[in-house]
Amino acid sequence: MEQNRTQTRTQKRTHWRRQKRTQKQTQKKTQKKTQKRTKNWTHKRIQKRTQNMIQKRKQKRTQKMEQKRTQKRTLKGTTKKTHKRTQKMEQKRTQKRTQKLT
Known about the structure:
By secondary structure, the protein is mostly helical. It has a domain at about 30-75. The protein contains 1 helix and no strands. The chain has one helix at about 1-100. It is rod-shaped, with a radius of gyration of 43 Å. The termini are far apart.
């Protein structure tokens, strides 16, 4: 009778230990899975963010380039006009000089 009781006690103890062990293992497994999932998710989020940043940078660059182009175009137009104007003024001056001399 006494032996039986102790045997059951030890059996119970091993059962508890085994249960605890399996519980820990399952916990670890689930933890790993969730870690993987969150890792993937954060990686995707970071990837998306970097892609957006790159896209924005490209857009800014193209906008700046376009702005510069338009500025150059307008400047070219105005400089041509001013250049012509100065040429005409210079011609008039030379004509006046020649008239004064003669």
